[in-house]
Amino acid sequence: MMRDQFEKQLSLLNNMLIEMGALIENAIALAVQALKTQSADIAGKAIALEHDIDDKEREIESLCMRLLLQQQPVARDLRLISAALKMITDMERIGDQAADISEITIYLADAPYFKKLEHIPQMAEATIKMVTDSIDAFVKKDLILAESVIKYDDAVDELFYVVKNELIELIQADSSNGQQALDFLMIAKYFERIGDHAVNIAEWVVFSIEGVHVKDRGQM
User: Fold this and answer.
1) Which one, out of 73, 108, 165, 174, has a CA that is 20 to 30 A from the CA of 189?
2) How far is the C-alpha of 32 from the C-alpha of 51, rounded, in Å?
C-alpha cells in the first residue's frame, strides 16, 4: 500500500517535471521569437514566465522533500529523487537565461539589426531540443536519449564559435557595429549556457539510471 502511494507521488513528480520543462521550452521559444521580430512585448512574456518557473521549482522541491522524509525510498528511488532535485536547479537557471536574453532583446528593439540573424536562431532550436530530450530521457528512463543530449552539445558549441568569429569580423570591418555585435555575442553565450544546463540534466538522468555520474565513469 505504501509502495502504491509512493509510485503515485513519483508519477506526480514526473508530471511536474514535464510541466516545468514545458515552461522553460516556452520561455526559450518566446525569447528567440522576440529576438527575431524585435518585439519588446514578446520579450516581456518570456521574462514573465520566470516567476512561474521559480514557483514550479519550489513545488517540485517540496514534493521531493516529502518523498524523502515520509517514505522509505530504496537506493534506486533515492537516486531518482536526488537527480530530480539537481535537475530543477539547472531548469530554473535555463529560465533565468531565457529572461536575460529577452532583457537584451528589449534593449535591441529600437534599432535595426546590422546583420541578418542566422546562427543564433539555430542555436536556440538546438538548445530547445536538448532541453526537451533531457527531460524526456528522465521521464522515460531512456539512457540512450540522455547520452545523445550530452553528445549534441558539441553542435551548440560549434555554432557559438561560428557566431563569435562572424561578429569579430564584422566589428573589425566596421567598429560602429560594436555595441550591437557584443549584445548578439552575449545572447549567443546565454544559448550556449542553456545547452550546458541541458547536458547537466542529461548527466543526472544517467546517474538516476546507472547510479554513476557520467564524469565518474572513467574512474571505475
Assistant:
1) 174
2) 19
